[in-house]
């Protein structure tokens, strides 16, 4: 009791005090526990939100191959999460390295930020300039705590007017390369936290993957559509652009032009300098063509003539330029002119100066073209025409040219059939000796084509095409065989006939064939005729192409006794040096001199030729003699042999050989 | 109602009237009295506490709520100082309630029901604050505005244009600062 009494009041007080202290401690402990729990909850919530954000962006990135869509999603998610007002994306221009807005942005309330948004969507930033430029330069996030006081922030005034306080930007990287970047702006102060930077780094990685995928797809697409050597569009892309261009044409179908540019003699360059040099040359030609077309395009644009040029490589040494929207003939011919000029400058490769030229075919779209392929074909035909005219020429396609080429194509086709089916026959025009009572000394064999639809055609109607297409070699071979067989028949007819020769025309291409001499020999052997009764007529064309070889072949066949004759003498170059160097037995005075024989000038020329022939020990045949007067005159001048309608037209073997 | 509101009320009452006053209030209101900031508790309990205080002090519930709101603000700034940072004025702070403070509250307590304030600029320059609460806590809001104004060293003049208690579809205050 005593103890209780003694201690009761103070003990109670003390106890109360103790309890109060304990209560206070408990309260503080509770508050601390609450604070700890709150912090834990907040952190958990935030990390969950970051994870969810990242998850949504990753899913978006995985689902879409569209870079812009993925970027837009990321911008929206980040803005929503952070309560930021505006997010904007830039792609890095691979050529200039500038950050270029890519029309991927997000703003919760775009109307409020209109001016800032417009500025941000249009400005390009070089490395180091502005907020995007800083990220480009350093490859790490950058923060602007207060855009109003940041001197280097280019959009400062507009941002201030729109109430923007702070901003930040994050790189999107593929390995160490900044390929794009995201920038964000807020009307509040934005603080960089580790979580934020960490999350944005991962967002950047995800978006980097989308861009990488897009890049490899573009690369594949590019490879499929571009020539690997020059990087120019290839035939596939050209066709695509052509389709687009023609789809836009007006009713009259004018406004698309095609230039087919084919290098002249590229194969020779390749053979002579090697493929390595050939490739380098093609690359250089591509670069020059591109530069010429682009420069001209810009000039025309400045003069209010807007068109779009596509330079493509469509073959080894063939380029096609599509001019979409160009219908002005003067401009088109100016462009072809410039193409020729740019190629005139020598190409230098490993110390070698190489000269190159191109043949250009031009075709313009018109109502005659049902589709672009016809236009391309026309330009192609024009190019071949240009090529046939020589190096460095331009030919514009016309309807007349088209018709001519088409009929030539048709002729070529029929000629092939004719050779296959042996639709030819030889006619023989007698060659007489004017100094010996017009005795028949021989014949010129002339080929006729017994065309199944058009009847008998003379050489003038098909020889040219046969020469152009190379068919002359086959035709010439047939003529050689047939003539030799005919000689055998001729000589079997009697003594008079046995002394006669048959002269055949040999085209340069056939004559210069590697095995021509051997072929002549084989034919002579198989037909069993005297080589001296075969005369080969060539024009000076062969000597122009390859004088050395011509001399060799002539010498070789003459060794067996075959006679040789220079045809059409007096026309062309008629170089005396040919006569001197090349072994001929006779020359033929061109009929143009004979038909103009009434003129003194022609008489003088014929006299000179006869004098020349006499001094060189060559016999002379005058051809194309149509009347007595001509015959008398020529005989009077001392010309020995004569050929012409006056003495006999070309006629079938049965008629000719009995003369 | 969030536990934090009960905690703040306890703190305000204790500061003003001593620790016993809170216990008395709890007994008088017949509520549990166990509140943690991490929990949520029935609205009726806060109203019962307010009514008990009103009876004990002999003043209207509206006055009690206004007093509580104004007194709670310094306590809030002590606990959640970051919400007040970066705001130059009471107006700026109040305008951030929907966008910043409420989302923050939701971060902590999933499913926390927060009132939504509708802000509008009145042509006369006053800030109009619209607010729908079936619990008619517009007087608490009034007190919070006053407390916030105190925090920024300003003085607010608040006019209740509409009140759900008077049968209006919403409560609306017009606030001007000086």
Structure characterization notes:
The complex is a heterodimer of chains A (659) and B (178). Chain A has 659 residues and is an alpha/beta fold. Chain A folds into three domains: 63-224, Beta-Lactamase (2-Layer Sandwich); 235-397, Reverse transcriptase/Diguanylate cyclase domain (Alpha-Beta Plaits, 2-Layer Sandwich); 419-656, TIM Barrel (Alpha-Beta Barrel), CATH 3.20.20.450. In chain A, the strands form four sheets. In chain A, strands 13-14-16-17-18-19-20-21 form an eight-stranded mixed barrel, surrounded by four helices. A five-stranded antiparallel beta sheet of chain A has the order 2-1-5-4-3, sandwiched between helices. In chain A, strand 20 (619-622), helix 23 and strand 21 form a beta-alpha-beta unit. The longest helix of chain A is centred in the first third of the chain and has 62 residues, at 2-63. The termini of chain A are far apart. Chain B has a domain at 88-178: H-NOX domain (Alpha-Beta Complex), CATH 3.90.1520.10. Helices cover 54% and strands 13% of the residues of chain B. The longest helix of chain B is centred in the middle third of the chain and has 19 residues, at 61-79. The chains are: A alpha/beta (659), B alpha+beta (178). The interface between A and B is medium-sized, with 13 and 12 residues.
């Amino acid at each position: 009791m005593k103890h209780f009494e003694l201690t009761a009041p103070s003990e109670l007080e003390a106890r109360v005090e103790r309890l109060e202290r304990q209560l206070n401690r408990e309260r503080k402990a509770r508050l601390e526990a609450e604070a700890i729990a709150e912090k834990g909850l907040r952190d958990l919530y935030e990390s969950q939100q970051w994870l969810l954000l990242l998850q949504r962006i990753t899913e978006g990135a995985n689902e879409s191959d569209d870079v812009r869509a993925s970027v837009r999603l990321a911008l929206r998610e980040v803005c929503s999460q952070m309560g930021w007002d505006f997010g904007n994306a830039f792609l890095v221009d691979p050529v200039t390295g500038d950050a270029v807005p890519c029309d991927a942005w997000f703003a919760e309330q775009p109307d409020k930020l209109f001016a800032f948004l417009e500025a941000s969507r249009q400005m390009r930033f070089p490395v180091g300039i502005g907020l995007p430029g800083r990220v480009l330069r350093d490859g790490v996030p950058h923060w602007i705590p207060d855009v109003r006081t940041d001197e280097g922030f280019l959009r400062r005034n507009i941002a201030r007017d729109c109430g923007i306080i702070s901003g930040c930007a994050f790189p999107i990287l593929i390995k160490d390369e900044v390929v794009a970047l995201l920038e964000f702006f807020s009307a509040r102060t934005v603080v960089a936290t580790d979580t934020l930077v960490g999350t944005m780094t991962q967002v950047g990685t995800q978006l980097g993957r989308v861009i990488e995928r897009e890049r490899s797809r573009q690369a594949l697409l590019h490879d499929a559509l571009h020539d690997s050597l020059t990087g120019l569009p290839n035939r596939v892309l050209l066709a695509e652009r052509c389709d687009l261009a023609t789809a836009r044409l007006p009713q009259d179908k004018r406004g698309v032009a095609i230039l087919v540019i084919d290098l002249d003699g590229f194969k020779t360059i390749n053979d002579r300098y090697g493929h390595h040099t050939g490739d380098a040359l093609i690359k250089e030609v591509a670069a020059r063509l591109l530069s010429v077309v682009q420069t001209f395009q810009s000039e025309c644009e400045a003069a209010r003539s807007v068109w779009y040029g596509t330079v493509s490589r469509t073959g080894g040494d063939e380029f096609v330029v599509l001019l979409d929207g160009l219908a002005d003939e003067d401009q088109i011919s100016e462009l072809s002119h410039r193409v020729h000029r740019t190629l005139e400058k020598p190409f230098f490769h490993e110390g070698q100066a190489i000269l190159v030229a191109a043949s250009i075919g031009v075709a313009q779209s018109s109502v005659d073209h049902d589709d672009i392929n016809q236009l391309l074909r026309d330009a192609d035909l024009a190019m071949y025409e240009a090529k046939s005219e020589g190096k460095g020429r331009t030919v514009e396609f016309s309807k007349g040219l088209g018709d001519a080429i088409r009929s030539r194509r048709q002729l070529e086709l029929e000629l092939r059939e004719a050779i296959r089916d042996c639709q030819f026959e030889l006619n023989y025009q007698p060659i007489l000796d004017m100094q010996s009572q017009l005795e028949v000394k021989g014949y010129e064999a002339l080929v006729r084509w017994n065309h199944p639809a058009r009847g008998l055609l003379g050489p003038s109607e098909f020889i040219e095409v046969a020469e152009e297409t190379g068919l002359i070699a086959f035709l010439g071979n047939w003529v050689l065989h047939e003539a030799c067989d005919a000689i055998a028949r001729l000589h079997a007819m009697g003594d008079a006939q046995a002394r006669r020769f048959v002269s055949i025309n040999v085209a340069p291409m056939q004559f210069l064939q590697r095995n021509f001499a051997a072929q002549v020999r084989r034919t002579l052997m198989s037909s069993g005729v005297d080589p001296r009764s075969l005369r080969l007529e060539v024009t000076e064309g062969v000597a122009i192409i390859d004088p050395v070889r011509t001399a060799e072949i002539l010498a070789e066949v003459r060794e067996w006794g075959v006679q040789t004759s220079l045809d059409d003498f007096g026309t062309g170059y008629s170089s005396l040096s040919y006569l001197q160097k090349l072994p001929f037995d006779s020359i033929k005075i061109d009929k143009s001199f004979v038909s103009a024989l009434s003129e003194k000038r022609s008489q003088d020329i014929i006299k000179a030729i006869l004098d020349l022939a006499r001094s060189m020990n060559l016999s002379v045949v005058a051809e194309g003699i149509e009347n007595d007067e001509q015959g008398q005159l020529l005989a009077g001048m001392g010309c020995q042999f004569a050929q012409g309608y006056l003495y006999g037209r070309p006629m079938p073997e049965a008629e000719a050989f009995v003369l | 109602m969030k536990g934090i509101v009960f905690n703040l009320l306890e703190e305000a009452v204790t500061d003003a009237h001593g620790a016993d006053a809170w216990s008395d209030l709890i007994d008088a209101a017949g509520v549990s009295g166990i509140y943690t900031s991490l929990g949520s508790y029935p609205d009726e309990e806060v109203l019962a506490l307010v009514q008990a205080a009103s009876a004990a002090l002999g003043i209207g519930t509206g006055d009690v709520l206004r007093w509580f709101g104004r007194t709670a603000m310094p306590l809030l700034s002590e606990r959640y100082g970051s919400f007040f940072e970066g705001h130059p004025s009471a107006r700026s702070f109040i305008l951030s309630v929907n966008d910043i403070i409420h989302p923050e509250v939701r971060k902590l307590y999933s499913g926390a029901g927060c009132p939504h304030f509708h802000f509008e600029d009145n042509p006369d320059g006053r800030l109009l604050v619209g607010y729908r609460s079936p619990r008619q806590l517009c007087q608490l809001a009034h007190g919070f505005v006053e407390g916030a104004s105190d925090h920024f060293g300003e003085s607010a003049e608040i006019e209740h244009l509409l009140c759900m208690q008077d049968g209006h579809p919403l409560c609306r205050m017009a606030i001007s600062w000086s």
